[in-house]
Design a protein that fits this description.
about 260 residues, Cytochrome Bc1 Complex, Chain D, domain 2, two-stranded antiparallel ribbon, transmembrane helix, metal-binding, electron transport, transmembrane, Cytochrome_c550/c551-like
């Protein structure tokens, strides 16, 4: 304690050596110029560093706000869900045959349970005094294996996700009105398109047409030849009805 300088806080790490004898480190006075008062020097510096990071974080939230999607629709069975980035590796795991379908319990509970259980038990299973990585080969190996698996599964999830479809389905759009008495809509309802694309053309098991910028020729081609999950020959009407339907959907998709 020095008058006018406040209390000095120093570390005291008395430990036992291999022979069981107490080992005392050198007194802090052996390191002149390398100690400082906890208050206000040390604490003020910590506060300043924390304030810089906090302000930087707030600036990022203002400059890049969280993205918003369209209003949730529980009847939209065609929606492709995607969890936050830190759960992508679990999301990808559920896509594999050994962890999905009848084995879903393995991917959803067994594998994550073993992984996180081992992480919680690590301090009790590995009680060795060594801190150097090369002297702890098994714990380091298992940790590297876990990290590699998480990175790989996350990358696979990002690389294989249909981002174009996700952008369309999450897009916030205003309701586009159309005339249900339109001859094209009558054909639309008659051909049971409502079952997949919705009575407001909002999508469901099939795509939503709003904003797709389709031409009548493209609509007619898909109606005859199919597209992805839509089977060829789904349209059963006449050529005249197909023309009305194509013109109606194309006009709506370009509004």
């Amino acid at each position: 304690m020095h008058k006018g300088k406040g209390m000095k806080f120093v570390g005291d790490s008395r430990v036992q050596d291999k022979k069981g004898q107490k080992v005392y480190p050198p007194d802090y006075s052996a390191y002149p110029g390398k100690n400082e008062p906890f208050w206000p020097d040390f604490l003020l510096r910590e506060w300043m560093v924390g304030a810089v990071f906090l302000i930087g974080f707030l600036v990022l939230t203002v400059a890049h706000p969280s993205p918003l999607e369209g209003q949730a629709d529980p009847t939209n069975t065609g929606y492709i869900p995607l969890p936050d980035w830190y759960f992508l590796f679990l999301y990808q795991l559920l896509k594999y045959e050994f962890a999905s379908g009848p084995y879903n319990i393995i991917g959803a509970m067994v594998v994550p349970g073993i992984a996180f259980g081992a992480l919680l038990l690590a301090p009790f299973l590995d009680r060795g005094p060594e801190r150097r990585a090369y002297k702890r080969p098994l714990p380091v190996l298992f940790m590297l294996l876990a990290l590699s698996a998480m990175v790989y599964l996350t990358w696979e999830s990002v690389a294989n996700h249909d981002w174009a479809a996700a952008e369309r389905q999450g897009k916030i759009t205003s309701d586009t009105a159309f005339d249900k008495s339109d001859p094209g809509y009558e054909v639309y309802a008659k051909q049971s398109c409502i079952g997949c694309h919705g009575d407001q053309l909002q999508g469901g098991a099939g795509v939503a047409f709003d904003g797709l910028k389709l031409t009548p020729e493209q609509v007619a081609k898909v109606a005859k030849e199919g597209y992805k999950t839509m089977q060829p020959g789904a349209f059963k009407g006449s050529d005249e009805e197909l023309k009305k339907l194509a013109n109606f959907i194309a006009e709506y998709s370009n509004k």
